[in-house]
Design brief:
By secondary structure, the chain is an alpha/beta fold. Helices cover 35% and strands 19% of the residues. The chain has a single domain, classed as HAD superfamily/HAD-like (Rossmann fold, 3-Layer(aba) Sandwich), CATH 3.40.50. The protein is built from seven helices and six strands; from the N terminus they run βααααβαβαβαββ. The longest helix has 12 residues.
């Protein structure tokens, strides 16, 4: 089965969707400011590399405990679906290949937009949508490849789209064609991985 693989954050949209969602929730639910000192503490630990990104991701989405996640995610994408770059819209993707979206962002956030955009397979970091707790590995770097192979073991990757060669070298190595996505513009390049 032939597939095209897309990263999401800063590739299909101009921002990190998880951060954008946090800010969006904070603006609409000011009581979440009470969690800010706790989140800044954990963010500082991650920034200083005292804790790993997976450890950080286990706690950083705990704010959803105080939200109706399904409702807020729906409203978030109602507002921000227009931010998706044209190359990722269903009418601009290859019709003869499956579209696979792979993201490190929480699955409860990414699956909604993937459904709206007729993505065939959506792979993201598994989180409990009620507690925000990370339930498995963060879907980044080589974990993207592991998850893709587990989900679609017979996939033949034709095109790969991402904003970062450094972070997505593992998925770039799978593709016949590689496209660097910067601000909605695609540049095909040769990859020596």
């Amino acid at each position: 089965m032939q597939v095209d693989v897309y990263d999401f954050d800063k590739t299909a949209v101009p921002y990190d969707s998880a951060m954008k969602y946090w800010y969006w929730c904070l603006a609409r639910r000011p009581y979440l400011l009470l969690m800010l000192p706790w989140q800044l503490f954990w963010s500082a630990l991650a920034f200083c590399r005292i804790i790993s990104v997976p450890t950080y991701k286990k706690v950083c989405f705990r704010f959803v405990t105080f939200l109706n996640t399904k409702k807020t995610v729906t409203k978030f994408w109602d507002r921000h679906q227009k931010d998706v770059y044209p190359f990722f819209l269903p009418e601009n993707r290859a019709k003869d290949r499956k579209c696979v979206l792979i993201s490190a962002s929480p699955d409860f956030l990414i699956k909604e937009i993937a459904s709206r955009l007729n993505v065939d397979v959506c792979i993201a970091s598994p989180h409990d949508e009620r507690t925000g707790k990370l339930l498995g590995k963060v879907c980044r770097r080589d974990e993207k490849v592991n998850r893709l192979k587990a989900e679609l073991p017979d996939a033949e990757v034709v095109n790969v789209y991402s904003d970062s060669v450094k972070h997505d070298s593992y998925i770039f190595a799978l593709g016949e064609n590689r496209y660097l996505a910067k601000k909605g513009e695609l540049t095909k390049f040769d990859f020596q991985g």
